[in-house]
Design a protein that fits this description.
The complex is a heterodimer of chains A (about 400) and B (about 250). Helices cover about 25% and strands about 40% of the residues of chain A. Chain A has about 400 residues and is of the alpha/beta class. Chain A folds into 2 domains: about 5-250, no CATH class; about 355-410, no CATH class. Chain B has about 250 residues and is an alpha/beta fold. The radius of gyration of chain B is 18 Å and the shape is globular. The relative contact order of chain B is 0.18. The interface of A and B includes residues 361, 362, 363, 373 and 380 of A.
Amino acid sequence: MPASMTLPDLASATANSGVRSSALANWQATGWPGPRVESWRFTKLALLEGKTFAPAHDFADQPAGAGMDAAESIGAHVLRFVNGVVDPSDIENAPEGVNISALAADEDAMSHLRQMVPPAHPVSDLSLAVMSAGIIIDIKGRVDMPLMLSFEGDGATTSAHPVVFVRLFEGSYLQLAEWHASTAGLSAPLTGIDIAAGARLEQVKVQTDGQATTHLAATGVTLGAGASIDGFSLSTGGRLARLETHVCFAGEGADCNLSAIYMGRGEQHQDITTYMDHAVPNCTSNQIIRGVLDDRSRGVYQGRVHVAPDAQKTDGQQMARALLLSRKAEVDAKPELEIYADDVVCAHGATVGELDATQLFYLTSRGIPKDVARAMLIEAFLIDTIETISNETLAAILRPVAQAWMAEQETL
Amino acid sequence: MTALLEIRDLHASVGDKPILKGISLTINPGEVHAIMGPNGSGKSTMSYVLAGRDGYEVTGGDILMNGVSMLEMEPDERARAGMFLAFQYPVELPGVGGMSFLRAAVNARHIEAGEDEVDQLGFVKLVRGKARDLGIDDAMLKRAVNVGFSGGEKKRYEILQMALLEPTMAVLDETDSGLDVDALRIVSEGVNLLRDPGRSMLVITHYQRLLDHIVPDYVHILAGGKIRKSGSKELALEVEESGYAGIDDAA
């Protein structure tokens, strides 16, 4: 068993004989990935080694965080998590079409979730085993009120392990926002999103955890026939943040837009890792990734598009661009295509650059101060990515976060 | 009277290569001076040196605006002090909306002067009014700065910026390049509207034809990094007839 996470709280999981005990056994056998694990080569978890975190298990109220304000601004129904524990009062009064139930009691659901989430990811095992909160959110029909999952919390030695399984039933529709603003030591959300045939999810995730937080998110998405997801993540928080998403195309004609912006400064490490598993024909996936890195921050983009032999007519696109604002900032980009079908349209690309000196000169020659000019060019670099968000309500909560980051840039 | 712009024995290099080799020029308020010269004479270098572009190093001499040296000033500080450069090749800024760009530029002056920022609605009206004079339509104003503009549109957009920023010292770098006869006329009319007793202009051009439209008070011939000859507007016609070769010899 690794030195970290040897916690009495895990006794309950150990006593269990089902999915959670198997997840725990896996975690105990493997622990945090070492430097030789290929998928973690660019993102090292050395700072977690030897650390002992205590997962919270009871809901402790706190003053409302930024996610609550954002929820209010778009009239969303909120599920609030403090240190990974859900506010029990939020479970009730869910909007029509939304049914929330306990995950821990549903062995089949946990088993299903486990098959969807990134395999060999420490959070897939650990958070399922610990499970500070475990909820299933079932969606039937068209739900017009957006749903906000607001994650807050604190405590340098606290870890949060919320597990959320969202199941969109056939033909349903949901707008889902996820807001992370926790200063806990470890934020390890595990999410499964099962989108049945013809259903559609519009989703944004804002990750603004504290500057000392390690944010490790593992998400698994399954798309049925004709299902679609428009997902967008903005990651500016955390000392180290990795947002890993695996998407499985299980039914034909499914469509996945999964874009992200990551922004880093200071010693931050921002990682966006995606895996598109095109298992069936006639599906499309599109990813636009933009990174802005200042100071000594580091960015990682790993995107793999896998096209199975039968998955003809797949359209898989990924384009990653990073903007380095400092000579000490670094980025590792690893877009990969694994194509085993012969009739596909796939493209990928990755570029790294800095602000264009000629553009900066043009702006400053008009009297615009250099710091303002830089912010304008950074925003310009990001804007087409934000404009891909089809849902204006969700885009509206995201834009101020990016702008706040740039405003901070001006005052530094 | 203090000269609006006084260039004193200016030497400048790009990289380690000396380009300007001792230029002296005095421009009084309201005067329009033209600088003509063959390719490689240092015309564009001079415009960039005046605007303060990185990489254009002044190795000797001084540039004074209203009696104050500009050498230690950044490009944005020079601009807010009244300097304006109309670019030979206006720069495309994908993702930067035209209106927010223009507003940021005008606001930068207001903020420096301790005035309120411009009101958004009033500003849109102001821009539209000035844009109409230059044949710039709303669709063009809404686009990202210079993106997808034709050569003529880019030059008109430069003059629109000049009209909004109301500089005291405007440097027009090859504003005629890439323009057909009609576009040249529109741009020149736009510039002439901005002639003012308090505003001076330095018109840099390779060809005399621009000076038929923007008639200068003085013409200087630049060659090999030095002003070889200065005179009235007739000097431009002389160059048109005999080319730059004769001028070079005369120096």
